[in-house]
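Entry:
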Amino acid sequence: MKILKEGDKVPEFSGKDQDGNDIRLADYKGKKLVVFFYPRANTPGCTAEACDLRDHYKDLQEQGYHLLGVSEDSQKKQSSFRDKYKFPFPLLADEDHSAINAFGVWGPKKFMGKEYNGIHRTTFIVDEEGRVSKVIDKVNTKDHASQILD
């Protein structure tokens, strides 16, 4: 699996958000989209990242960005994560990995000496034409909005 890079066309993907609504890449045609992949809902890093985006949501909207959070968590987990922290953007419950595979963010990771496969925390900025305009692979979870807005 190859991670998407700047200039790549994003393959079509679809899935359900925390409320069971269908979300497709095509829904965002003609819009600037920030797709942020995070390993697990309600973990410290993922919470810090999503809360930073929530706190700067107005600034991101003013720049014309739409946000979509993605992890392989279930709809129920995504829903409780959203409700607990009052996120104003949808969270994709990508249990079948359709978005994860489309962007190529699944792969080997290491944590406390253990190797396993998981989601690499990566953010993609997708332009109005559905092409990747920026990839942020060194996400600063506490200051992520400024990485997007810079």
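The mean pLDDT is 96.
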